Amino acid sequence: MNPIDLRVYLVTDTALCGARGVSDTVRAAVAGGVTVVQLRDHAESTRALCRLAESLREVLAGTGVPLIIDDRLDVALAVGADGVHVGQSDMDPRTVRRLVGPDLVIGHSVSTPQEARAVADLPEGSVDYLGIGPFRATPTKPNAAAPLGASGIADVVATTSLPTVAIGGIKQVDVRHVLATGVGGVAVVSAICAADDPQRAAAELRASVEGPA
Amino acid sequence: MNPIDLRVYLVTDTALCGARGVSDTVRAAVAGGVTVVQLRDHAESTRALCRLAESLREVLAGTGVPLIIDDRLDVALAVGADGVHVGQSDMDPRTVRRLVGPDLVIGHSVSTPQEARAVADLPEGSVDYLGIGPFRATPTKPNAAAPLGASGIADVVATTSLPTVAIGGIKQVDVRHVLATGVGGVAVVSAICAADDPQRAAAELRASVEGPA
After folding, report:
1. Domain B8-210 - what CATH class?
2. 3-state class of B117 per DSSP?
3. What is the ipTM of this complex?
4. Theoretical Cys-Cys bridge with A181: which of A153, A176, B8, B89, CB 3.0 to 4.6 Å?
């Protein structure tokens, strides 16, 4: 089990980051308190994706915030990222583990208790954490499963002993409600990438996750 | 240097294979005499691509025809393919070599003498062969470089000591003309994938490559 602090998990969206760019958005978000960064970009060529991943690795160097690459273990290995996140239509986690070795973090997306139980049937240590969602429908992932809401997320959390993070249209005002499902953190795309001030947005999410003093 | 028989090199196109499917097209093409198969598909999810690569590995098992995966070394490693082919916008060949080890074949696309010379500057053994093209403009690769024709291909061949294969809209009637540039083989997409009878198309290409008796 590779430990990972899932409390405030940023998933990048290159288009939403806009003119500010992905690297500067990530730098601001880390200053604000995100605990993980996942690079997600399905539009770029492999060479451009490697270049972007490399620049995020530099932004994150020394911060203690891990860099996770969505889908592409080739890119994760090429740039020395900390982990890979695979969804239901990506490479199966057992094959990913065989190829990346024991030390990289592997995250896996699930939307149902069945999918979470299937992870429990994999060899011990195949998957380090589960992303559960979508909490609500979101334009950043048009082919996602139907929205689960808090009760649907709670149903999935109840079936797993792995660390979990909820994803899908989560806003700062949702955080306490989402955490009440038992998940270990909230993953966001728009709430930070599309924010006027990504550092402030990250700081507000972080404060909400840490809860009332 | 990993040896590879480049004489008749099939690059798959899932859409052009149509209802016949990629696996059956490849099976027919191998029966006709292709010497290499490259799986190229940028539309599928990673999971679907792995499944397709796995099925081609099964089709090719025992035939002696190697399976090369375009762009995606993750997929190549996952299914135990024989090699990876990377273009100018894919991962750089030196990084690919570091990740896949010495035994996988690495092919690299070049369109100019400059790009071919850049390969010569890489560490010995980074690249096993060069794909040179496009011979002519082709709808299967809309973002390709300007057509080279036979004289442009000959200019690139002259700058390299690596094995070479020409690509880009090559038809059976072009084969002798293309081979006169000094390349070791012809790579085709449409000439086999879009043929009414892919086995016969492959056999005719093979006969043309072997030349007049």
Report:
1. alpha beta
2. helix
3. 0.95
4. A153
- When CB atoms are compared, the residue of A47, A48, A91 closest to B74 is A91
- B47–A78 CB contact, under 8 Å: no
Residues B108 and B91: beta-carbon distance below 8 Å: no
Position A213 pLDDT exceeds 70: no
- Please check whether residue A71 touches B, CB under 8 A: yes
Cβ contact, residue pair B95, A50, below 8 Å: yes
pLDDT digits (tens, 9 = 90+) for B50-102: 999 999 999 999 999 999 999 999 999 999 999 999 999 999 999 999 999 99
The first and second tokens of residue B29, run together, are 């093409």
Distance from CA of A92 to the nearest CA of B (A): 7
Q: Which residues of B are annotated as a binding site?
A: 70-71, 90, 109, 138-141, 169, 189-190
Please give the share of chain B, as a percent, with pLDDT higher than 90.
92
Rounded Cα distance, B14 and A30, in Å = 42
> What pLDDT is attached to residue B141?
76
CA gap A162, A85 in Å, rounded:
15
